[in-house]
Amino acid sequence: MVGARITVNGKETPISPAAPHTTVLDFLREQGFTGTKEGCAEGECGACSVLVARPGVDKPTDWVAVNACLVPAAALDGQEVVTSEGLATAGKPGTPPTLHPVQEEMAVRGGSQCGYCTPGFVCSMAAEYYRPGRCAHAEPAEGAESTEDAEHGPNGFDLHALSGNLCRCTGYRPIRDAAFAVGAPADEDPLARRREQSPPAAVATSYIQEGSAFLRKDTLAETLQVLRERPEAVVVAGSTDWGVEVNIRARRADCVVAIDRLPELRELKVGADAVEIGAALTLTEIERRLDGRVPLLAELFPQFASRLIRNGATLGGNLGTGSPIGDSPPVLLALEASLVLAGADGEREVPLADYFTGYRQSVRRPGELIRAVRVPLPLAPVTAFHKIAKRRFDDISSVAVAFALEIEDGAVRKARIGLGGVAATPIRALATEAALEGREWTAGTVEAAARVLRAQGTPMSDHRASAEYRAAMLGQSLLKLYAQTKEAVSS
Amino acid sequence: MSQLSERPEKPVVGVSMPHESASLHVTGTALYTDDLVHRTKDVLHAHPVQVMKAHGRITALRTGPALQVPGVVRVLTIEDVPGVNDAGMKHDEPLFPEEVMFHGHAVAWVLGETLEAARLGAAAVEVELEELPSVLTLKDAIATSSFHGINPVMTAGDTEAGFADSTHVFTGEFEFSGQEHFYLETHAALALVDENEQVFIQSSTQHPSETQEIVAHVLGLSSNEVTVQCLRMGGGFGGKEMQPHGFAAIAALGAKLTGRPVRLRLNRTQDMTMSGKRHGFHARWKIGFDAEGRIQALDATLTADGGWSLDLSEPVVARALCHIDNTYWIPHARVEGRIARTNSVSNTAFRGFGGPQGMIVIEDILGRVAPLLGLDPMELRERNFYRQGQTTPYGQPVTHPERISAVWEQVRANGGLADRKRQIAAFNAAHPHTKRALAVTGVKFGISFNLTAFNQAGALVLIYKDGSVLINHGGTEMGQGLHTKMLQVAATTLGIPLHRVRLAPTRTDKVPNTSATAASSGADLNGAAVKNACEQLRTRLLQVAATQLGAGAADVRIVEGIARALGSDQELAWDDLIRTAYIQRVQLSAAGFYRTEGLHWDVKKFQGSPFKYFSYGAAATEVEVDGFTGAYRIRRVDIVHDVGDSLSPMIDIGQVEGGFVQGAGWLTLEDLRWDTGDGPHRGRLLTQAASTYKLPSFSEMPEEFHVTLLENATEEGAVFGSKAVGEPPLMLAFSVREALRQAAAAFGPAGVSVDLASPATPEAVYWAVQAARGGEVRRDGRTFDTGGEPVRTTALSHA
C-alpha cells in the first residue's frame, strides 16, 4: 500500500511521520517550505495561504487558496499543493528564479515591506489570477463594459480574494495596485494548463500514528458505518473550525473523519420547488455555481469570513457546529430551509427552525450527517442580510439579521426573519414577523415592528459589542431595510 | 549646504526602488528567525508556563510532573539562572518571577524534543499561588495612586495668567485605548552554543545590543561571549525594542544548560498575552482660548498605563508631553505626566512612542471645542499653527514652522477640498441616513531619541579585492526599508552602482553598542555612520586614483564606478582602482561613526532641544457614516508629508501609507479588552487572537489614497538631506477620527460638540451619532458584563 502523500510543488512527499493532527502549515515548514508562515494559526491572517488543486467550477480543475494552518496534512492525501516557492521558476544554480507574474507585480510595486505576510498574499492573489471567471476580464475586448469598482480591478480581479490576508506594514494600496495590474496567464503557464486536466481524485485515507487516526472513505455509506462504530469521531470538511480547536485550544482527537469529498454531499440541484445544496460543497463552490440564483445567499457569501475560509468552509459545517454566531443560519432561517440528515438507518428532513435545541446543540443524532440543505422555491422577493461587525471583511458578527419578505400591493403578506448573535442558538424573530404580516409596509408599521425586533432574543455584552448596541442594531436593521426599499422605489 | 546633506553627481539615493529583499519576500525565500529551525539539528522547543491570574505570590512550583511527560528534556526555573534574574534595563522585570504580576505571566519554561511535548510538559507543571489584589484599569490606578517611575512636569509661561486672559475655558477628560503591535511574525529566538563556546542567538529584535547585554547578564557572561544576529523581522513597530530580550535569554539559558540549540517562538495568543503594547492613556485637561480661538493656556495631566514594570514607560511619557502641542503654539502650559502601575502586560514602545498619545489629546480637544467656539475645525487648527520664532513648551525653537502650513495648503489643493466640501454638504442635505465629512489634521514630530546618549551609530564597511563591497551597520530591518536605504547611501557615497554593494545581517560582533532601531532614527543615524565609513574609504581611494590619473585628489570624482579627474578623459574603473589600492597597501575597510550634534536635554527641568529637527505632514480624510449602524468607510485620503529629500521614494511612500493605516487601526478598529470583573478570569485579555482583535484589512484601506512627498524639502541636519519617516505618518490618522466625529455631528443640529470614544468602532460612532441627534445617549459605549470598564470620555464643561 502506498502511504499517504502530498504533491508539493510537483514533488510527491510522504506525510509520515507527521501526527494526524499536524497541519499542512507545519508539514510544509518541516519539509523546508518555510515561505509558508504562521501568523495566527486560526485562519485569520492568511500568512499560510497555499494553492490546492480542486475540482473546478468552470474548468476541470481550479487552483484554490486555503489556510494551511487549519487543514490537517492527512486531509490532502493524494492532492497537489503549490507554495510561494513553487510559483517561481527556478533559474540555473546561482541565478535568481524567474518570478511568477503575481510575484513580479508584488515585488516591483512595493507590495512587500517586512515580507512576512507576502508569500500568503502571493498565493491568494495567484488563485484569483487563475480564476477562469476573472481571466475573461483580464484583457477586455475593445469597448467592453468595465466591471471596475472599488473592489474589482479593471482586470476583473476581485479584492475579496484577499479578504483573508492581513498586512500590518503597507496599508494595502501597493498590494491592490499589484492585484489590479496582473494580466491573463500565458498559454504555456503550467498552472494555467493544469486547470484543463482532471483534478486529483479524492483518495481513501487511513492515516494512523500512535493510536490516532485520520480517515477518509469513498462513500457516504462507508462513512456512516465508521461513525456508527466510532460515534466520538470528529467530522471535518474544510476543517476551518476544527483546525482552530486543534491549534488554539490544543484539542486532539483519536479519530477524525473527513467528508469533504463524498460525492453524495457535493451535489447542487435546482428543482421546481427547491434548491438542494450539498452539505460538503464549499461556500465558494455554492457561490459560483448558484451565481446569484438565491439573492439572499449571494448577499451572504461576501460577508461570510474570508475567501480563504469560504474555500474550505461548508454549509454542513456551519450548521453542524451549531454556533449561535454562524452567519448562514439567520439567512437559511429566513429562507425557511430544511436539512436532510443522513444516518446509517436512512434519511430524514428537519426544518432548520426545529434543528437547534441549545447552545451548540441540535436534533442531529450521533452518527448522523447533514447531507444537504434544501431551500424551498419560490423565493421571497424582498431579501436582505445585515451583518453587524467591527470590520467589513472577515469578522465575526455581533449580530446578524436576515430578512425575507413578500410585500404585495403595499402590504406585508409574509415575513421571515432570522437572527444570529442574540441567543444561545440562531432564532427566528417570530414576534417581529407577526408585527409585520398583514400590515401596510409603512414607516409606522416598520417603526412599531422595529421596537418589537429590538426586544427579541437576549443579546449579551462582550468584547465585540455591548448588549445595548446589539439590541439597537436589530431594530436599526429593519429601519434600514425599509429605507432601502423606499430608496429603490424612488430612484 | 552641509556636508552631511549634500548629494554628489548621479546619486543612488533618491532613486525609487522596491525593498532590497522584495524578490525573496515574494518567493517565500526570505528567511526569518524561526525559519532557521529547520536548518538546525537537534533543536529543543521552549514553551512557557503561564499563570492565568492577575496577581499573586508563588508559594510552590513543582516541575516533577512535567519531567514525566515523554519528550520533556528540562524545565527552566529561577534556580537555573547563573547571572542576574532580570530581563529589563530597569531591574524591575524578573525573568523568572516569584510574584505573578499579570494574567498570563510566564513563571517557568519547558524544553521539549517537540513543541507538543513542551506544551504538554508546561501544562503538567504545578504552580500554587497566594492570590493578591489586582489593579487593572487606569481609573483604579489613579484612584488608588498606583504609580511608578518618573512624574515629569513640563511648564512654559504662566498658566494662571493665560487662563485669566482667556475668553473661553473648557475642561474635560479623555481616556483612550492602547494598541497591540500585531507584527505578523511573533517573538522568536534560536540560541546555541557555537563551536567557539560563544553563545550565539538569532533573535527577532530591534535592539540586538541590548538583547546581547541582557542575555550576558542573565547567563553571568561578558558581552564578548554573546553574539546576537537579527536577519530581519516580520514587523517590529516598537514591539521588538525591549520585549525580545527575555525570550532570547530563555533560549540562551536553555542552550547553555542542555548544550543543544533551543528555539523559542511564541504563538499569537502567547505573544498577545505576554508582551507589552502601546500605552493607553487617561488625560484630564483645562484649556483657554482667546476670542479668536487662539490657545492661551493648557493645563493637563496625562497618565499612561505602564503595566506591571517600567520598561520604556518613562521615555514614552516624556515624548507624550513633548508632543501635546503638535503643530499648535501654546504660550502658557503646564503638563504633568504619570505612569500607572497596573497588573497587566508591561506596555512598551509602539510607533510614535507616546507622541500619538500626546497629540491625540490636543486634536481631541480641538475637535470637541470647534463647534462651541463657532469655528470650522480646519479654521481653528490653522489659527493656532506655530509661526516663526515660537518655541515649544519644552523650550525648543520650532524650525521650519512654515512647513506646517505648506503641507496643509498643498493637501487642501491636492485634495480639491473647497469643491469637495461643497459636494459633501449637498450629499448630506440629500441623505438623511448617510453622512459624509472631511477633516484635515497635521503633524509635527520631533526626531531624535529624547535621551541624547542614544543618538549615536556605527558601521563597518569592507571592500574586497574584487571590488565588491559589504556593509554592516547597527540598524535592524523590520520591513521599513532601512537596508535598502543603507545600500543606496553606500553606493552613493562610494560612487558605484548599487549591485556592487551587499549588506550583511545585523550582528553585535560587527558593530558594537548600537542603539535600538527605533524613534524613526534608523536611517538618520546608521545612514550617517555608513556614509562616514564610506567617506573614509573614498578619501583613501581618491588619493590612489589621483596618483593613477595624474591629478590632485580634490579634482577626482568617482561616478557610477568610474574615477575621473576633472577636465580629463582618462578613466579608472572601480575594480582596477581597488586592485591598485590593495597592492599599494591601502586599508580597504573602515569603521564609521556618527553622533547627532546640537542636542541637549535637561531631564529634571524638562527643558531643552532634544530633537535634531521636526517632521511635518498633513492629511485630509473623507469618510461616510451609516446612521443606522455607525459603520463607516474611508472614501478618500490625501497626504502631503515632509521626508526632506527622500532617500528612497517608494520606501518612504510605503512608510507613509502603512503608518497612516496602522494609526487608523489604532483609532478606529483595534479594541483591546480585558476582563476587569471580579470573576475567575479577572485580568484576562479578552481580545487575544486575530479573530477577536481586528487589524485593518483590505476593507479599511482608503478607497482613494494619494500620498505626495513635500518637494524641495532638504534637511540640512541629516544624511543626504533626508528626514526620518517611520513614525510621524501614523499620527496623520487623526484626520480619520476627526472626520468620523464631524460626520456623526452632521446627523444632528449645528454647533453641537461631539464626544467620540477611542477606538471609534462602529458602535462608538453609532453612540456619537445618537448623541449628536440628541437622542439615546450612551456616553461610554463600553460597559460590558464583566463590569468595571472605565468611562471613556466625560462631559466637556464650559467653565
TrEMBL record, chain A:
<dbReference type="InterPro" id="IPR002888">
    <property type="entry name" value="2Fe-2S-bd"/>
</dbReference>
<dbReference type="InterPro" id="IPR016167">
    <property type="entry name" value="FAD-bd_PCMH_sub1"/>
</dbReference>
<keyword id="KW-0560">Oxidoreductase</keyword>
<keyword id="KW-0408">Iron</keyword>
<dbReference type="Pfam" id="PF00111">
    <property type="entry name" value="Fer2"/>
</dbReference>
<dbReference type="InterPro" id="IPR036318">
    <property type="entry name" value="FAD-bd_PCMH-like_sf"/>
</dbReference>
<dbReference type="InterPro" id="IPR036683">
    <property type="entry name" value="CO_DH_flav_C_dom_sf"/>
</dbReference>
<keyword id="KW-0285">Flavoprotein</keyword>
<feature type="domain" description="FAD-binding PCMH-type">
    <location>
        <begin position="207"/>
        <end position="380"/>
    </location>
</feature>
<dbReference type="InterPro" id="IPR002346">
    <property type="entry name" value="Mopterin_DH_FAD-bd"/>
</dbReference>
<dbReference type="Pfam" id="PF03450">
    <property type="entry name" value="CO_deh_flav_C"/>
</dbReference>
<dbReference type="InterPro" id="IPR006058">
    <property type="entry name" value="2Fe2S_fd_BS"/>
</dbReference>
<dbReference type="InterPro" id="IPR005107">
    <property type="entry name" value="CO_DH_flav_C"/>
</dbReference>
<dbReference type="InterPro" id="IPR016169">
    <property type="entry name" value="FAD-bd_PCMH_sub2"/>
</dbReference>
<dbReference type="Pfam" id="PF00941">
    <property type="entry name" value="FAD_binding_5"/>
</dbReference>
<feature type="domain" description="2Fe-2S ferredoxin-type">
    <location>
        <begin position="4"/>
        <end position="87"/>
    </location>
</feature>
<dbReference type="InterPro" id="IPR051312">
    <property type="entry name" value="Diverse_Substr_Oxidored"/>
</dbReference>
<dbReference type="InterPro" id="IPR036010">
    <property type="entry name" value="2Fe-2S_ferredoxin-like_sf"/>
</dbReference>
<protein>
    <submittedName>
        <fullName>FAD binding domain-containing protein</fullName>
    </submittedName>
</protein>
<dbReference type="InterPro" id="IPR036884">
    <property type="entry name" value="2Fe-2S-bd_dom_sf"/>
</dbReference>
<dbReference type="Pfam" id="PF01799">
    <property type="entry name" value="Fer2_2"/>
</dbReference>
<dbReference type="InterPro" id="IPR012675">
    <property type="entry name" value="Beta-grasp_dom_sf"/>
</dbReference>
TrEMBL record, chain B:
<dbReference type="Pfam" id="PF20256">
    <property type="entry name" value="MoCoBD_2"/>
</dbReference>
<feature type="region of interest" description="Disordered">
    <location>
        <begin position="780"/>
        <end position="799"/>
    </location>
</feature>
<keyword id="KW-0560">Oxidoreductase</keyword>
<dbReference type="InterPro" id="IPR037165">
    <property type="entry name" value="AldOxase/xan_DH_Mopterin-bd_sf"/>
</dbReference>
<dbReference type="InterPro" id="IPR000674">
    <property type="entry name" value="Ald_Oxase/Xan_DH_a/b"/>
</dbReference>
<dbReference type="Pfam" id="PF02738">
    <property type="entry name" value="MoCoBD_1"/>
</dbReference>
<feature type="domain" description="Aldehyde oxidase/xanthine dehydrogenase a/b hammerhead">
    <location>
        <begin position="27"/>
        <end position="133"/>
    </location>
</feature>
<dbReference type="GO" id="GO:0004854">
    <property type="term" value="F:xanthine dehydrogenase activity"/>
</dbReference>
<dbReference type="InterPro" id="IPR016208">
    <property type="entry name" value="Ald_Oxase/xanthine_DH-like"/>
</dbReference>
<dbReference type="InterPro" id="IPR046867">
    <property type="entry name" value="AldOxase/xan_DH_MoCoBD2"/>
</dbReference>
<protein>
    <submittedName>
        <fullName>Xanthine dehydrogenase molybdopterin binding subunit</fullName>
        <ecNumber>1.17.1.4</ecNumber>
    </submittedName>
</protein>
<dbReference type="InterPro" id="IPR036856">
    <property type="entry name" value="Ald_Oxase/Xan_DH_a/b_sf"/>
</dbReference>
<dbReference type="InterPro" id="IPR014309">
    <property type="entry name" value="Xanthine_DH_Mopterin-bd_su"/>
</dbReference>
<dbReference type="InterPro" id="IPR008274">
    <property type="entry name" value="AldOxase/xan_DH_MoCoBD1"/>
</dbReference>
<dbReference type="Pfam" id="PF01315">
    <property type="entry name" value="Ald_Xan_dh_C"/>
</dbReference>
